[in-house]
Amino acid sequence: MTAGAGGAGRSRWMVSMVNPRRGESFAGGRVSARDLTAIIGAGLRGAGNAVTDDQLARMAIEGGLPGAADVAARLLRATFGDAI
What we know:
By secondary structure, the protein is mainly α. The protein has two domains: about 30 residues; about 45 residues. Helix content is about 65%, strand content about 0%. The chain has five helices and no strands. The protein starts with 6 loop residues before the first helix and ends with a helix. The N terminus is likely disordered.
């Protein structure tokens, strides 16, 4: 699913519906470890993996924080396309 026209605003809106503070963070270009965990966790669950955010937070991701940011960016791009 891609966001299409107005996708950037829509993606921020969708994130803010889940957690308004998280939407403000994204809009300001700030992403926390909790944000990355939520994005990666949603991607894993969407692919059929039964993993909680708490379990994911205890896992090692290749590349550490930069690797996690890359994974999250790829997931967002795959979900919303170039609109983000």
